[in-house]
Design a protein that fits this description.
By secondary structure, this protein is α+β, with helices and mostly antiparallel strands. Among the domains are: 176 residues, FAD/NAD(P)-binding domain; 59 residues, no CATH class. The chain is built from nine helices and 20 strands. Strands 5, 6, 7, 13, 14, 15, 16, 17 and 18 form a nine-stranded mixed β-sheet that branches. Strands 1, 2, 9, 10, 11, 12, 19 and 20 form an eight-stranded mixed β-sheet that branches. Strands 3-8-4 form a three-stranded antiparallel β-sheet, with no helix packed on it. Helix 1 runs parallel beside helix 7 and helix 1 packs across helix 9. The N and C termini lie far apart (56 Å). The structure holds flavin-adenine dinucleotide. The site of flavin-adenine dinucleotide has 41 residues, from helix 1, helix 2 and strand 13.
Length: 421
């Protein structure tokens, strides 16, 4: 029987939602119900499957949320630099999954460009824990060294240098999710798609299952990995999150790109080659908070398109004029959520009923999805996590304002996206 250390919970505050449980329609029973078949939920399920009966449900299909829209840059993003063991755990997992169920992990360095020496020094300081970690290969190259490493690929006027993270790679989101779902099934996980969890059911201070439109699922533990849909399911927890979008565009390259071309970041724009498509870059960026009632923009925001043009035409020698491939704009269909410090909530919160585990607001959440799964396993079983989970506690903030800011995410495009062209 899985146990969750949810702290000292006063059971009397949790009223059963249904007075006559025996009258309730049950559609399934499991030890652990995972809500959300994105990268976080599928890894959590696979981690728990060896010693639990695990059911994953998703309101849509596998990858219906942010995971299915991801651009597939896998690296240690700066928020994760203080947790090198979480990064290393994840990279090892991507390497282990490579070649299984049609999935390929394309090993590719990730280069983060710095315009000035001061920016370069700040990058080195941020990533110091990775420089320090044995076995993690990272270096800072000046502009001349970058040009020598990738001859003819970059115009580096006005660039001091770049941090090169070698333990990085590219994934195709669809293939990744397919491989995760197949791996989870192989481990005995059951998946139920097109099933929305409407609420978590609690009796006597403990989770006993969840309600869906088809009936109840009985479960000793409910793991909420529902991305932007997590908040309404965990009413006991004050989740400090704001919704935002990322955007992807495909841009034509003037010359074929070879396997040596790295992933690159500069000035809020990420670009990478696309294995199997030698004449295009996948470009990510355009991160904006969403106003409470707004959905993602229908068209690429003009500011994002200008940024893509400026950065690629300025720095990528293979792009004379940045031309977007028609129809390639891909925002988050469901939106993403972030916390004030950019780190996720990975917790069995003391304020919640026993048996409720929350794993949400994972930005760069493809890159660390294996770690998220391991963290969830430790929250359910009490096993040691790859890194201490205190930095991810739900109650680590002192009531942040609802409109808190986060570096790198712009304020909302108002109304019906007037910033689009
Ligand atoms: C355009 C874009 C580009 C990105 N690029 C990258 C990248 O290059 N690298 C990277 O590391 N990260 C990237 N990300 C971020 C990454 O995709 C997310 O951090 C990650 O996918 C979050 O995974 P998740 O499983 O936690 O959430 P999601 O993938 O959002 O999964 C949540 C799931 O829960 C389901 N759900 C929600 N509510 C309910 C409910 N009530 N009942 C049942 N099911 C429910 C949803 O249908 C969904 O399938 C990108 C995101 C976007 C949108």
């Amino acid at each position: 029987m899985p146990t969750v250390d949810a702290g000292d919970v006063a059971t009397s505050i949790y009223e059963p939602r249904h007075a006559c449980p025996s009258m309730v329609d049950r559609i399934d029973t499991c030890d652990v119900l995972v809500v959300g078949a994105g990268a976080s939920g599928l890894w959590s399920a696979a981690e728990l499957a060896p010693d639990h009966d695990v059911l994953v449900v998703d309101a849509g299909e596998v990858g219906a949320g942010a995971s299915g829209d991801a651009a597939g840059f896998v690296t240690a993003f700066s928020d994760w630099a203080p947790s090198p063991d979480a990064v290393a755990h994840s990279i090892a997992a991507f390497r282990a999954l490579d070649g299984r169920h049609g999935f390929t992990f394309y090993e590719r360095p990730y280069v983060e460009l710095a315009r000035t020496a001061a920016e370069g020094a700040a990058l080195r300081e941020t990533y110091d824990p990775l420089f320090e970690r044995p076995g993690y290969d990272v270096e800072y190259l000046d502009a001349a060294e970058l040009s020598a490493r990738w001859p003819g690929r970059f115009d580096l006027d006005g660039v001091d240098g770049g941090l090169v993270k070698h333990e990085s790679g590219i994934v195709a989101a669809e293939a990744y999710l397919h491989a995760l779902a197949s791996t989870a099934r192989e481990c005995g996980v059951r998946l139920r798609t097109n099933t929305t969890v409407e609420s978590v059911v609690v009796e006597d201070g403990s989770v006993v299952g969840a309600e869906t439109p088809d009936g109840r699922v009985d479960a000793d533990v409910v793991v909420c990995t529902a991305g932007a849909g997590t908040g309404p399911l965990v009413e006991w927890v004050d989740l400090p999150v704001r919704r935002f979008v990322y955007s992807n565009l495909r841009v034509e390259a003037d010359a074929p790109l070879d396997d040596a071309y790295p992933m690159v970041y500069a000035d809020d724009v990420w670009w990478r080659p696309e294995p199997g498509r030698p004449r295009t870059f996948l470009v990510s960026g355009g991160t904006y908070f969403l106003a409470p009632d707004d959905g993602p923009p229908r068209d690429p925001p003009a500011a994002y398109r200008r940024e893509v043009r400026t950065v690629l035409e300025g720095l990528a020698a293979d792009v004379e004029t940045a031309t977007a491939v028609p129809g390639s704009y891909q925002p988050c269909t469901t939106g993403c959520v972030t916390t004030p410090d950019g780190l996720p909530v990975l917790d069995a919160p003391a304020a919640a009923p026993d048996g409720l585990v929350v794993a949400t607001a994972v930005t760069g959440g493809i890159s660390v999805s294996p770690f998220t799964g391991a963290a969830v396993r430790s929250l359910v079983t009490g096993a040691d996590p790859p890194v201490p989970l205190a930095p991810f506690a739900a109650d680590r903030f002192d009531e942040p304002p609802a409109d808190f800011r986060v570096d790198g995410i712009r304020e909302p495009l108002s109304g019906a996206n007037p910033d689009s062209e």
